[in-house]
Specification:
Largest sheet: 5 strands, parallel
Order of helices and strands: EHEHEHEHEHEEHHHEE
Shape: rod-shaped
Number of helices: 8
Radius of gyration: 34 Å
Strand content: 15-25%
Number of domains: 2
Structural class: alpha/beta
CATH topology of the largest domain: Rossmann fold
Number of strands: 9
Helix content: 40-55%
Length: 248
């Protein structure tokens, strides 16, 4: 059974016979879509038009634009810079020659004449890596989607609690600013939500004297932030119309 359906390979070689051999070998063993280019310029055009190419097999020795120049231009373009490139070469002339290929973005080399098994094993390895990466990305995307849905559900649940609870609720920042209120708080205090957001809690808290105000903005506010509740205090909120509303 042939594998790697949906994968796309670009073979680049100025020799028509080499392209035919590569195509025949790949099609015999893999269900891979094969694109062909007979030079560097054509390879750039095809890669730009097909940014979903999974792997490029690129001959080094080509006239006009050689494999090194082609790879360098592919890596310089946003659409094609992440496509892995395997160089085909007749021989490693020098270590500098080999290093140059890696410097311009090659991930591997294959020697000519091509050994069928080595070639198939090599490209299969990269297809498997790509396959694993796609599977991992899919799992991560599913987890992110699931977590996002859970957070949205939790947010909706909390919003419903705020909206429908009978008691007034004011959410404060550490500096005593009102960050959120529920409809019951707006009704109790006589303010619109937009008016309350950003106000200091001291603006709606009974201030019969400096001691009372200082007590709330100091000890009481600290206790409220730490425990989430105020207990056993004799104080009140002041509504927009001036009405005194005892804190129970």
């Amino acid at each position: 059974m042939k594998r790697y359906a949906g994968f796309k390979l670009l073979a680049v070689d100025d020799n028509e016979h080499n392209l035919f051999t590569l195509r025949a070998l790949v099609e015999q063993h893999m269900d891979v879509e094969i694109l062909e280019a007979r030079g560097g310029a054509e390879a750039l055009e095809i890669a730009q038009a097909h940014p979903d190419i999974d792997l490029i097999i690129l001959d080094v020795q080509m006239p006009e634009v050689d494999g090194f120049e082609t790879a360098q231009m592919l890596k310089a373009r946003r659409k094609t810079r992440d496509i892995p490139i395997i160089f085909l070469t007749a021989a490693f002339k020098t270590e500098d020659f080999q290093r140059k290929g890696y410097d311009v973005g090659a991930v591997d080399y294959l020697l000519k004449p091509i050994d069928d098994n080595q070639f198939l094993n090599k490209i299969s390895t990269y297809f498997r890596l790509i396959e694993k990466e796609r599977q991992l990305n899919q799992v991560l995307e599913e987890k992110v989607a699931q977590r996002t849905a859970e957070l949205d559900q939790a947010k909706q649940y909390l919003e419903n609690i705020l909206k429908y609870m009978g008691e007034a609720l004011l959410v404060l920042s550490p500096d005593g600013r009102i960050r959120e209120v529920n409809p019951a708080a707006c009704t109790m205090l006589g303010y619109d939500r937009a008016e309350l957001i950003g106000m200091s809690i001291g603006d709606v808290f009974e201030e019969e004297g400096e001691d009372q105000a200082d007590a709330f903005m100091g000890t009481w506010l600290e206790a409220l932030i730490r425990t989430g509740a105020l207990r056993d205090i004799d104080a009140a909120f002041i509504a927009k119309n001036g009405e005194r509303l005892p804190i129970l």
